[in-house]
């Protein structure tokens, strides 16, 4: 299987930075922009709360990494990876936005120019009230979210040997479609 061109990889941060923890995906994309380990040709997008219009940003990608606040009933600050068929099973409202992630995924399946491998890295929010500060639990989880995002980008852009060496402990050998990681 050929390694995809980096330009075909899109990282899409979702959220609303004025609703406290809902801005976690945006904060993670901002951190990836500052991180020198981020592959240079990966497209980083602050998707905010744009909703279905985000499909046009990702419809020509072969790999899509979504970063978001996701209510999965875990402890606040828990980082989860959801991929494959589990993404299609996300009911509307699992993310904390007005328009659900399931709606965006359904639209992508309709308009995508090619099959897209999609991975969601989400963090369980503690609070989504009006405010620009993240809760302490989600603030601590941003580093985990960024490290998991970088590990995923390595898996997508480097050879299998490099992936094995570069992946964070507990990430490379995971075969489950849903994995939880706690901030340290």
Topology:
Layout: E1 9-14, H1 24-34, E2 43-48, H2 55-58, E3 63-69, E4 79-83, H3 85-88, H4 101-111, E5 117-123, H5 136-157, H6 160-166, E6 178-181
Parallel strand pairs: 1-2, 1-3, 3-5
Antiparallel strand pairs: 4-5, 4-6
Main β sheet profile: 6 strands, mixed
Query: What is the end-to-end distance?
Result: 35 Å
Q: Please report the first level of CATH classification, the CATH class.
A: Alpha Beta
CATH superfamily: HybD-like
Order of helices and strands: EHEHEEHHEHHE
Radius of gyration: 15 Å
Tally of individual helices = 6
Précis, in short:
By secondary structure, the chain is an alpha/beta fold. It has helices at 24-34, 55-58, 85-88, 101-111, 136-157, 160-166; strands spanning 9-14, 43-48, 63-69, 79-83, 117-123, 178-181.
């Amino acid at each position: 299987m050929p390694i995809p061109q980096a330009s075909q990889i899109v990282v899409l941060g979702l959220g609303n930075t004025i609703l406290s923890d809902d801005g976690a995906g945006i904060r993670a994309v901002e951190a990836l922009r500052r991180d020198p380990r981020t592959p240079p040709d990966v497209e980083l997008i602050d998707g905010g709360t744009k909703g279905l219009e985000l499909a046009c940003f990702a419809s020509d990608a072969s790999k899509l990494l979504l970063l978001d606040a996701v209510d999965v009933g875990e402890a606040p600050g828990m980082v989860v990876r959801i991929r494959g068929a589990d993404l299609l099973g996300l009911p509307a409202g699992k993310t904390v936005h007005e328009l659900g992630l399931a709606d965006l995924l359904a639209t992508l399946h309709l308009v995508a120019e090619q099959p897209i491998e999609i991975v969601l890295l989400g963090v369980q929010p503690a609070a989504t009230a009006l405010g620009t500060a993240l809760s302490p639990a989600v603030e601590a989880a941003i580093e985990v979210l960024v490290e998991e995002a970088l590990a995923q980008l390595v898996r997508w852009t480097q050879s299998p040997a490099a992936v094995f060496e570069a992946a964070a402990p507990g990430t490379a050998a995971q075969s489950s479609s849903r994995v939880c990681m706690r901030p340290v």
